[in-house]
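step=encode ok
step=design start
structure_in=
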């Protein structure tokens, strides 16, 4: 498919930081795509980022930008706008619940690897519950804050550089990570490699087919705007690809992982927010939670056990 490129139109963010390159689907490699909308720059109510064209893959359902905006470096993650409100106790509690579920499925605690562990809240929960845990994150800022806040050691490394033995891990966490990755299949395949047969991976991503997203898209069309609220490739929180149930299941299967459970969960949206749109989104999210179309998407998957 051919879509109009927004690149020739005025941009409001530093264009020099982003390199626009044609791309195929990052999950399945499909070259065809369907237009979803423009996002960023002139196609953003606050003019954030630069304008890109968001498309959907007809084969697996993934959303991505075509052409894709690749950063020259990772300095954009150092901006204050990326680091939002922080509630460490809530993050530790959520990690503890995930680890408890994993221990039940695995028959006990074991070796856990958190890829993109942030400040290391999961490492705190793992330490308390008796797991042997290792955390990786590319951000020196997060590593320093993890040491200062929790006394945990976080390796500033990508999984490809961490030298982890094959079949050496019982549980891999990928929470709020895949939506930031330009090559998600390389990451998922590496996660599957380090898992032992029967080991688990937990993936947490935004649901780009949520009720709130679909309602927002319909609203923009009533305003005759060819924009979208999906993704944010060139402004915080820098979500460069977007998953639906279909796309996430496809990606896990392509990495050799068996999906055990795929569900949605409600994000915390303030029903008392001052903006009309924000209040409406919060109320829609409450409805979405009841019908399985909420804004968070959670998958539990397993590496198949070796046949005897």
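sequence_out=
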């Amino acid at each position: 498919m051919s879509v109009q490129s927004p690149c020739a139109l005025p941009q409001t963010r530093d264009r020099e930081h982003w390199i626009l390159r044609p791309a195929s689907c990052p999950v399945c490699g499909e070259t065809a795509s369907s237009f979803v909308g423009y996002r960023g720059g002139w196609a953003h109510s606050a003019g954030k980022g630069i304008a890109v064209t968001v498309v959907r893959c007809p084969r697996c359902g993934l959303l991505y930008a075509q052409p894709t905006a690749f950063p020259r470096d990772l300095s954009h993650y150092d901006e204050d706008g990326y680091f939002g409100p922080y509630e460490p106790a809530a993050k530790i509690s959520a990690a503890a619940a995930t680890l408890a579920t994993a221990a039940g499925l695995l028959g006990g605690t074991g070796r856990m690897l958190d890829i993109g562990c942030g400040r290391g809240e999961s490492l705190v929960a793992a330490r308390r519950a008796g797991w042997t845990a290792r955390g990786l994150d590319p951000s020196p800022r997060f590593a320093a804050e993890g040491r200062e806040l929790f006394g945990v050691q976080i390796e500033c490394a990508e999984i490809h550089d961490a030298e982890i033995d094959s079949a050496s891990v019982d549980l891999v966490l990928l929470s709020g990570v895949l939506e930031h990755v330009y090559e998600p299949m390389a990451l998922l395949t590496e996660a599957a490699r380090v898992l032992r047969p029967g080991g688990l991976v937990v993936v947490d991503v935004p649901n780009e087919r949520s009720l709130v997203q679909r309602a927002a898209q319909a609203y923009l069309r009533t305003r005759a705007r060819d924009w979208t609220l999906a993704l944010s490739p060139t402004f915080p929180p820098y979500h460069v690809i977007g998953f639906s149930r279909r796309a996430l299941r496809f990606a896990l299967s392509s990495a050799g992982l068996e999906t055990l459970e795929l569900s949605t969960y409600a994000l915390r949206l303030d029903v008392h927010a001052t903006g009309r749109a924000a209040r409406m989104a919060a109320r829609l999210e409450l409805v979405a939670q009841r019908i399985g179309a909420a804004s968070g998407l959670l998958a539990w998957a397993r590496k198949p056990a070796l046949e005897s």
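step=design ok
step=annotate ok -> Residues 1-13 have pLDDT under 50 and may be disordered.
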